[in-house]
Structure formats: structure tokens, C-alpha cells
Amino acid sequence: MSHRNAPLTPTGRPRLARCVVDDGWPLRRAAERFQVSHTTAARWANRYRQLGEAAMHDRSSRPHHSPRRTPAAVELQVVRLRRQHRIGPVRLAARAGVAASTAHRILIRHGLPALAATDRAPGEPIRRYERSRPGELVHIDVKKLGRIPDGGGHKVLGRAAGSPNKDRRNGAGYAYLHTALDDHTRLAYTEDLPDETAATCAGFLRRAVAWFAERGVTVERVLTDNAWAYTKNTWRDTCR
Questions:
Q1: What is the model's pTM?
Q2: Sign of the torsion angle spanned by Cα atoms 46, 51, 55, 60
Q3: Please, are residues 89 and 100 in contact by the beta-carbon 8 Å criterion?
Q4: 48 in helix, strand or coil?
Q5: How far is CA 132 from the centre of its chain?
């Protein structure tokens, strides 16, 4: 990629080359006109003479041959160890007898992502998705959290003393966090409600849609799991 202050850009190089090749300018005159060295002017003129304007872009600096590249057998060993044991470049280097930087380059060369970007179970890359515009899809779900009373729960008071807190009528009960999350912007709206009945979920949907609308987001469709409340006509009618 050309430096922003470079005297010759992919636009300026053809101009220099045409002055030399098509108009017959001497190299030194063209070099002085475009404020580059004589050798630079000669290089771009020769490329233009051989390949035309297609050769006026930057070429890759990658070497054509790498005689000191890690042997293929060692690369295969590194890849195999990575897939079998889910270990990083440092531990791979110790097992394969290469430098950690070499192990890292091998992983990149074979398209193996960093461990932090993979699912630990299958070892496959974590593929995230995102809708193209705000409001196209809003995820809605409920997170149920136990309310811990003053003085602590069963871990502090013991199972026998903490069990009354599970009574929804007389104990601390649960907090039902209803959340609507926009897939594109990750903008979220959450309410702490007393339950997760169909009527409560429908009311939350109305308020969530209004909240998003105040911020210029029109909700087009929602995505939920198969919880009981989301299968009822109350929810379906509210969506319609």
C-alpha cells in the first residue's frame, strides 16, 4: 500500500510512464517532473512498457521461494497437535521442537484461529452473526434470578434455614429479568418483573417496542425460545 504522502500513487504512476513511453520524455526529465529518482522512473516506465496499466499497482513483497521454511512434516505435526490437544503456540513449540513464533506462523498459514476465537468442545471457530439493520430481529428472553434476602441465603444460613426463601408467596422469591436485545446494534431493554406469564410477557413486548421506537428503531420481528408464555395466543396476538 502506498504511503499517503508518496510522490507516486497508483494514479500518478501511469502518468509518469506515459510521459516516458508514449510521449518520449527522457527519464531524467520525467523523474524531475514527478519528483522521484531516476531509477524509480525507469522502473515504472519498464513495467508500463511490458504489462501496461495493469502493472501500475503495488506488488506483493512475498518472496517467490522460501528455502528456510519449516519442513512440511513439522507443519503437519504442529497442526495435528493443535487439533488433538487444543494448545497454543508456546506448548506446541515445546512439543514440536520449533520456536513459538514459528508455531504461530504455522497456525496462521493453515487457517487455524486463536484458541480464544474457537469453541473449546469441537475446536471450530465461533461464528457470530448480525442482522443488517436495527430492528430487523430482536431477541427476547427471561432470566430468572433468586432474590437473596438480607443476611444471606442457604450458603450462609444453611439449607433448612434458607429453604423458606424459595416460597414465592412468603419468601424472597425470584426476579424475572425480561430482556429485548436488538441483533444489529446490541441495544438492550430490560425490566425486572414479578413473573413470566403470558400477560406479563406480552406487556413487556409492548413496552420494549415503544422503547425502541423512541430511539428510532422499528421492531420488525422477534425471536424467542419455546417457553410456555411464548406459545400462547396472548403472545401471538401481541406480536401481530
A1: 0.48
A2: negative
A3: yes
A4: helix
A5: 14
